[in-house]
Every structure is written in C-alpha cells, then in structure tokens.
Design brief:
Blueprint: E1 3-7, H1 11-22, E2 28-33, E3 68-71, E4 75-79, E5 84-87, E6 92-94, E7 97-100, E8 104-106, E9 118-119, H2 124-133, E10 139-143, H3 147-158, E11 162-167, H4 174-177, H5 179-191, E12 195-198, E13 202-207, E14 211-216, E15 221-223, E16 226-229, E17 233-235, E18 251-252, E19 265-267, E20 272-274, E21 284-285, H6 289-303, E22 318-323, E23 326-332, E24 339-345, E25 351-357, E26 360-367, H7 370-381
Helix pairs in contact: 1-6
The chain binds flavin-adenine dinucleotide.
Pfam families: Pyr_redox_2, Reductase_C
Cofactor: FAD
Protein name: NAD(P)/FAD-dependent oxidoreductase
Length: 390
C-alpha cells in the first residue's frame, strides 16, 4: 500500500491516520475534509460552545498525524473499481487504500414557512451561529427529545431563554434510558424551566420573512424566535453511491471494519455499520465518541493487513451526556434492553441501572454512582457472560 486516502477529517479520520503512522505505515496519507476546520471535538458543541465557552474543542493528538490535508473540499464520488476519488474542486485522487470516515449529516424537517431562525447543531459553525442567537428572553423551540436536544434545551434555559421541547415520544431519551429514567430526567429539566410538549410534532413554521411561531400537529401555535431541529442524523454516504455497496444505514462492514467485498476499503466512526460479537451478530452503527476512536484504530489495522485475535473486534460501547447539571453515563447497548433494574440509588437522585435483554446484562446507565457503574461495566466485559444470547 503506497497511498491511503482518508475521507472525513474529524475524530475517526484523525485517529485512523495516527494509528496508521503508529503502526509504521510509511506511505502517503491524504486527509480529505468537507469542513474548513481541522479536526475538533464535537461533544462540546451542544454544551460549552453553545454556552459561549471555547473549552474542550481541541482534540488531543499523539503527534502521529503526518499527512497531506485537503480541508474545505468534499469528496463528491468514488469509483471503487478504479480506485479513484473525485473532489468538489475538480481534483482527482488515486489510492491504494481508502478510509470512509464521513460521519453524519443532521436531518432537516420539510416544514413549510420561513427558514430564518432555524438551526441544527452538528458542526462548529452551526454551534457558533446558535450560540450567538441564544439571548435572554428568546423563545426557543427544540424539535426532538434525544440527548443532544435535551443538552441544547439545558444550555438555552441557562442562557435565560424560554425553552420548549416538542417531540412525538412519551418521554425524553426513553428509547435508550427507558421510560422511567426518561420521565425522571424530564422532571429535572422542568424544575429548571424547560417545558415539554410530548406526543406531538411540528407541522409548519409561521411568520413572514422572520420566524414567529411553530404550529404543532395538535393545533397549538407556539410563539418561537429560534427553532432548533435536533431530530437525528443520516449517514454521509452520497459520495459512495453507484459502487454496489449496502448503504441502507451507513456503510456495511464486516467485524474488522472492512467494507464488504473490498479488501482495500475500510470505514470508521459514526458512518460504519458493523457486527460487534460483544453484543450479538447484527451489524449496527454506533454514534459515540469512544466508538469512533476504537473503530478508527481497528480500521487502520485492517488496512495494514493485521487481523484481530480469534474473539474478533469486541469494543465496549460507552457514552456520556451533560444536561440539567447532571452527567449521564452509559456502557453496552442499553437501547436493546427488554428489562431495566435500579441496582443503586433512585430515579430522582443519583442512580445506577442494569439493563437486560433475555435475562442477560446488555447495558448499564448511571447518574453519579461511579463505583456501581464501574462494577456493571466489569460485568459487561466479563467474557464468561456474553452480553446477549440472540
Ligand atoms: P464526524 O465527527 O461527524 O466527522 C465526519 C467528518 O466528515 C465531518 O467533518 C464532515 O464534514 C466530513 N465529511 C462528510 N462528508 C464528506 C465528504 N463527502 N467529503 C469530505 N468530508 C466529508 N458522543 C458522546 O459519546 N458523548 C457526547 O456527549 C456527545 N455529544 C455530541 C454532541 C454533538 C452536538 C454531536 C454532533 C455529537 C456528539 N457526540 C457525542 C457524538 C460524537 O461527537 C461522534 O460520535 C463523533 O464525532 C464521530 O466522529 P466521526 O469522525 O465518525 O464523524
């Protein structure tokens, strides 16, 4: 392998480049990135950056990042058969190895009405735009009740805005945390001033050139100065089309992150869908910071022809979320649980929850209760008790 092209110059792309160098790859590495910024940390975007602070954006690096950088230039298409990548500036790059690390794009809702005053939070530019608009007294409507939606609502209410979360689900974050913890967190947000309109969706925006209100499906006219769409993301795979790949949800890979049918192409980070034997044999995408790091390293090893041990690549998923003055932490796959049990504390305070599927531990969630969470994490990693039977 002489030249490796990494498409997507963010966390997974950077960590993959570092791993290639750390493993002794001496050829050329070219990093192609759509954003004009070099790699930065995304988690602070819906937390400190929205609150007007700059801290935490810098990505620590091992210094093993010697590469040619092409920033502000998206890849537009690729021929995997010819091993040639097309760039938006008309340039073309041949490669011997290709890394797909293009992450996600925020979903936008096709709401009729004015476009001004509508925001998403995925990039640094998005977060800075919204931060500048979060003035005391502003009426902010957040569409979605995911982790990022709740983080944004939390910062906005702290900034003195009046904030309403609108979402079809019955409780925030319930798909991952369960309805009981979701309800407890809703009450904590409500105590800090966030309002919830659950079980409903936005049907249109109202106003002339400037946004005045969001009209909900239940007929409510919600006065709104700023609308934040936090309704999930779709994988950035358009540039990979017409190569016969399974792009139905990210890019389908094997357990080693090799894009199926192509020895010379790997994927990493939010865009990669792969089976993790620690959980089961179903390929899934995982949108967590630590998983981008783990998959990036494995993708680099695969490209260099190194195979994982007989147990395969078995990373433990894990994430955190800061909101309403709390840190929520989780390991494993709590979203797959069919039963949840409070093992320490209680739902309205610090709590540790074991998540089970078909009687086996599959995930752990905690607020505080660090020691209990570490105990659950250890049990999840215990080889003698695989996370799932099916
Ligand atoms: P990304 O960081 O999305 O990077 C992909 C890059 O590829 C982007 O720079 C994009 O512009 C570029 N790109 C896309 N298409 C092209 C193309 N055609 N050509 C060239 N470049 C392209 N995780 C946690 O565990 N905890 C948290 O608290 C947390 N908070 C988050 C808050 C926010 C607001 C966001 C957005 C994410 C958060 N995450 C969190 C998730 C975490 O940041 C992601 O898992 C991580 O950024 C994934 O890294 P990635 O490199 O795979 O993708």
């Amino acid at each position: 392998v002489q030249r490796i092209v990494v498409v997507g110059a963010s966390l997974a792309g950077l960590r993959c480049t570092e791993a290639l160098r750390a493993e002794g790859f001496g050829g050329e590495v070219v990093l192609v990135g759509e954003e004009r910024h070099g790699p930065y940390n995304r988690p602070p975007l819906s937390k400190a950056v929205l609150a007007g602070a700059a801290g935490g954006l810098e990505l620590e690096t091992t210094g093993e990042r010697a590469a040619e950088w092409r920033l502000g230039v998206p890849a537009t298409e690729v021929s995997l058969a010819a091993r040639r990548l097309q760039l938006a500036d008309g340039g073309e790059l041949g490669y011997d190895g290709l890394v797909v690390a293009t992450g996600l794009r925020p979903r936008r809702l096709p709401l009729p009405g004015p476009r001004r005053g509508r925001h998403v939070v995925r990039t640094l530019d998005d977060a800075r735009n919204l931060a500048a608009a979060l003035r005391p007294g502003a009426r902010v409507t957040v569409l979605g009740a995911s982790f990022i939606a709740c983080e944004i609502a939390s910062v906005a209410v702290d900034a003195g805005c009046s904030v309403t979360i609108v979402a079809p689900e019955a409780e925030p974050m319930a798909a991952v945390l369960g309805a009981e913890l979701g309800a407890a967190l809703r009450r904590r947000h409500e105590a800090r001033g966030v309002e919830f309109r659950l079980g409903t969706v936005a049907s249109k925006c109202d106003g002339g050139e400037t946004l005045r209100a969001v009209v909900l499906s239940d007929g409510t006219d919600l006065p709104t100065d700023l609308l934040v769409e936090a309704v999930g993301c779709t994988p950035a795979v358009d540039w990979l089309e017409d190569n016969g790949l399974d792009l139905s949800d990210g890019v389908l890979c094997d357990n080693r992150l090799r894009v199926q049918g192509h020895e010379d192409v790997v994927a990493a980070g939010d865009v990669a869908r792969f089976p993790n034997p620690l959980i089961d044999d179903v390929p899934r995408r995982v949108e967590h910071w630590t998983m981008a790091v783990d998959t990036a390293r494995q993708a680099a090893l695969t490209l260099l022809g190194r195979t994982p041990g007989p147990a395969g690549f078995r990373p433990l998923p894990g994430f955190w979320s800061d909101q309403a003055g709390l840190r929520i932490q989780a390991f494993g796959s709590p979203a797959l649980a069919d039963a949840r049990e409070v093992v320490a504390g209680d739902l309205d305070g610090d709590v540790a929850i074991a998540c089970h599927r078909t009687g086996r531990l599959i995930g752990a969630v905690a607020i505080g209760r660090r020691r209990d969470l570490i105990g659950l994490r250890k049990r999840l990693l215990d080889e003698r008790s695989p996370l799932a039977t099916t």
